Amino acid sequence: MNALVAACPNHPEVSQGLRECSRCHRSFCTDCTVELGGKTVCAGCKDEVVRELRSGAPDVATTEWFSVGKGKFVAMTLATFGLYTIYWMYQQWVRIQGRSNRSILPWARALFSVFFIYSLVRVMRESLARYTNVSWNPGSVSAVFIVSSLIARLPIIGTFSVLGFLILLWPVGSVLEVTRRSDAPTNEKLTAANWVMLVFGALFWVAYLAAEMQPESAGAGSL
Fold first, then answer.
1. What HEC string does 160-174 produce?
2. What pLDDT is attached to residue 169?
3. At a CB cut-off of 8 Å and minimum separation 6, what does 56 contact?
């Protein structure tokens, strides 16, 4: 039973009064932690946190996930027929790879998102729940996203499956909420490149809807 009791990694004999490091999220005794910037930090993370505080860099809680404004996410997702969600997932996987120090092929996980969406939003929920109240369920978010991805292959109705991709607004909102608590950029404003994509996306939508509304050409006269 004692093996199941959490203890300080540096002092295994201490299992009471442990404090969680705000950076690595491991628990240590009071002798192994310090208070920096109003947060508890372990000895292993102390130097890096001190450098961030001196340089004005944002807290790890606001940088471990790619932030984007809700309005921007909706606009870019619709304008690119859902392709922006692949970019969003790629950015999240890149951050996971950076923290894990191992190659996980972020581009492949984003491109084949139906196979990896659940693991992504599950990890995101576990991480974000440390900083804010997270009400969405990874299973529900993943299910809607996967069904929308499958419907996208159907003619006509598949085009509008992009609306199902907006289920990702739940994790997008959680990241945004955490990011807003610091001076870290929230990425809510549209850039010049974003506007270009929005214009082309709008033109594609107009062309597509116009083509769908066109009456079918009358067939050739019967012989």
1. HHHHHHHHHHHHHHH
2. 95
3. 183
Whole-number Å distance between alpha carbons of 202 and 47 = 49
Residue 103 identity (one-letter amino acid): S
Query: What separation in angstroms does the CA of 140 have from each of 15, 128, 170, 177, 214?
Result: 37, 17, 11, 21, 37
Beta bridge partners of 27: 20
Sole residue written with tokens 């009071």: 30
Q: Which residue from 138, 65, 134, 131 is spatially nearest to 96, judged by alpha carbons?
A: 65
Q: Which of the residues in the chain have pLDDT under 50?
A: 1-4, 57-58, 60-62, 218, 220-223
Q: Give CA–CA dist 187/219, Å, rounded.
A: 52
User: Hey, what are 38's tokens?
Assistant: 């109003």
Report d(CA 213, CA 86) in Å as an integer.
Answer: 30
In the DSSP assignment, the letter for residue 158 is: G
Rounded to an integer, what distance in angstroms lies between the CA atom of residue 93 and that of residue 179? 18
Beta bridge partners of 33: 42
Phi, psi of 36 (to 5 degrees): -135, 125
Taking the alpha carbons at both ends of the chain, their separation in whole angstroms is 89
pTM: 0.69
Place of tokens 């581009």: 107
